[in-house]
Give the backbone structure.
Amino acid sequence: MDDMNIDSLERLALENDLRKALKRREMLVYYQPLVDQSTGQIMSVEALARWQHPNLGMIYPAKFIPIAEETGLILPIGEWVLMTACSQAKAWHDEGFSTLRITVNLSVRQFKQQNFVNTVTRVLQATGLDPRLLELELTEGIVMQNSMDVLATLQELKALGISLSIDDFGIEYSSLSYLKRFPIDTIKIDRSFIRDIAINQDDAAIVTAIIAVAESLKLKVVAEGVENKDQAAFLRELHCNNIQGYLYSRPLAAIDMGLLLQKGTILNIENE
Ligand code: C2E
Ligand code: MG
Ligand code: MG
């Protein structure tokens, strides 16, 4: 639902509940695999926040992240997600999935926190996670702030050994210059471009162009929101093999993600 449409009373109630959600252990982290479609191997998992509300059931980020951002609750919630995801990833590494990467979404507000790099350092120390297996997902909104601070923070994060990606690439700004200016490793093409890639020539052209730019800048590319085989086949033709989407798996609770990892490779589920 659009944030603006939420009735203000409902919103106030949600905000109140959100303040207590961490303490009441209602927040969850789900994990969605990123698959190399040429091998079926799970390369990484993305941590996605969920809120298991006692009366309202499962609440998705589109509804609570904007409230969390406005109220500042994104700081404790974001840190909790980071800690939970890193410690889960470390547990999977210890189970033998030693090269599995974990990616965690960041909001502008977290990033702008004075001590953000310290927070990340502390989480890495507390969990024992190898920083080379952690990837932070930034939005174009973060990098487009275009200040020296942003560059400095990104460089400090890179110095820790962490990778950086740009999420929902293409939807906010047309400027590509920041890709060169900032130490970015990966761009994730927004799923709005992927949806009609096999049937709409404009979307196909945009995605083709994004992949070409990424290739020439030596960035990794991930296609988000791949739901069917036609989309996957189109991407394969463009040599884009890093796929995230329902075709392979929806986001899963940690226990189910663990079972999927144990299966080894993952074939797409479209025909099941
Ligand atoms: P995102 O980071 O771009 O994550 C991908 C979203 O697309 C997820 O929605 C995922 O469930 C959904 N998705 C994946 N594959 C498909 C597909 O094939 N088809 C369709 N239709 N959707 C697909 P989700 O989990 O509802 O998260 C929405 C957004 O909320 C995320 O988008 C991210 O921007 C934000 N978010 C989630 N967790 C966190 C968090 O811990 N911190 C912050 N700051 N933002 C978060
Ligand atoms: Mg993301
Ligand atoms: Mg995205």
Q: What stands out?
A: The first helix runs from residue 8 to 21.
